[in-house]
């Protein structure tokens, strides 16, 4: 996906508040962190770049130095919730050992995806359904990435059980994975749920408990690499 939304970084732009250096984040990442917090807490539509700058401890002009718009910031944040899983899916597709246990491969991807969504500092995935994200051209690349991840889940599910409808199964697996978003919003997510969600995906495909446990052993090996 083209990354036209993000402007190239240039040296020489001072911070409004040098104390933000203590966070260990670059100015670019400080903006992303502040924006993510505000988008989730206050809502994307009502949030302004001035608020983002104040939260990050920088000048408002510095926000535009790194990003062309508020939409550009949100696009980077949303992509960060999808791209790691797509990258891992590519690795799994090319891994011969993973291909020998398709259930383990699917299990590994589900767990990795859950960890990405659950491990984000802010629950940015809760903004997936914003009208702006679903309709504006700026987010077409993100929507394509998310559709691709659904297709990957469908392909991986079909490799486990060839008789399934990959489109339906991919969508159902994605819905199970993204249950993390609502659980985080409600303050009810627990780390143990990553295993529960992965098992639910495999049970949905009709796998028995012995095969599920074998898939988990394979998944742990794949995730440890």
Strand count, sense and barrel status of the largest sheet are: none
| CATH fold call of the largest domain | Tetracycline Repressor, domain 2
Known CATH architecture of the largest domain:
Orthogonal Bundle
* Structural class determined from secondary elements: mainly alpha
Query: Count of DSSP E strands?
Result: 0
Q: TL;DR of this structure?
A:
This protein is an all-alpha fold and 225 residues long.
Give structural attributes.
single chain, 225 residues, Arc Repressor Mutant, subunit A, Tetracycline Repressor, domain 2, 0% strand
Indicate the topology.
Elements: H1 27-42, H2 49-56, H3 60-66, H4 70-79, H5 83-94, H6 96-100, H7 102-119, H8 131-135, H9 140-160, H10 166-177, H11 179-185, H12 193-204, H13 209-224
Helix pairs in contact: 1-2, 1-4, 2-3, 5-7, 5-9, 7-9, 7-12, 7-13, 9-10, 10-12
């Amino acid at each position: 996906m083209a990354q036209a939304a993000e402007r190239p970084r240039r040296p020489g732009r001072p911070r409004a508040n040098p104390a933000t250096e203590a966070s260990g984040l670059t100015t670019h990442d400080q903006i992303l962190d502040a924006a993510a917090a505000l988008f989730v807490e206050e809502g994307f539509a009502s949030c302004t770049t001035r608020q983002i700058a104040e939260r990050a401890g920088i000048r408002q002009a510095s926000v535009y130095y790194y990003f062309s718009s508020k939409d550009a910031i949100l696009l980077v944040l949303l992509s960060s919730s999808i791209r790691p899983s797509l990258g891992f899916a590519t690795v799994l597709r090319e891994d011969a050992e993973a291909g020998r246990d398709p259930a383990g491969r699917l299990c590994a991807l589900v767990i990795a995806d859950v960890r990405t969504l659950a491990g984000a500092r802010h629950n940015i995935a809760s903004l997936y359904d914003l009208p702006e994200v679903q309709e504006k051209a700026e987010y077409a690349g993100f929507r394509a990435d998310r559709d691709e991840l659904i297709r990957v889940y469908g392909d991986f599910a079909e490799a486990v059980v060839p008789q399934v409808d990959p489109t339906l199964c991919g969508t159902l697996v994605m819905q199970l994975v993204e249950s993390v978003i609502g659980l985080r919003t409600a303050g009810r997510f627990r780390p143990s749920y990553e295993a529960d969600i992965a098992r639910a995906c495999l049970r949905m495909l009709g796998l028995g408990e012995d095969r599920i446990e074998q898939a988990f052993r394979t998944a742990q090996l794949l995730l440890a690499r």
